[in-house]
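> run fold Adenine phosphoribosyltransferase
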Amino acid sequence: MSTVDLAALVRTIPDFPKPGIQFRDITTLLADPAGFADLIARLARIARPLDADLIVGIEARGFILGAALANALGLGFVPVRKAGKLPGKTVGVDYVLEYGTDRLEVHEGQLARGARAILVDDLIATGGTALAAAQLVREQAATVLMALFAIDLPDLGGRTALEAKGIATSAILAFSGE
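> ok
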């Protein structure tokens, strides 16, 4: 399958969640068995040489891609959740959004000191959530080897923001615009 074929499986929903936004909906790609398998295989080809210890998936669609990638690589999976979603004792980081703040958390002790992690999410836009997840991983004395995404929206500068913080970044697809 080509990247053009994969991109064709991503549904664009205009004016969601607000006017002017072209929402890139990956659920249509996930529902296509060949497309989903190809996406995970492509992510695995990028991730495998990094010799990671675990995959860290960012809520929510990063759970889907991250868990599938962890399985493909024979690695463990750690979910990064929004505040109040994990049942055990957590550690977290607050971060700034366009209109306020939010918090990401992991279970305390789930990221071992010195662990080598790959961050995974479905899409990189401005990079705020991915930067917060990377900070959370680093604050647990683990290393972020790379941030992997199915989709990059390069016009929004997220990849540039991550790379400015020393985080190697890769995406399988790119779409222009917001």
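DSSP finds six helices and nine strands in the chain.
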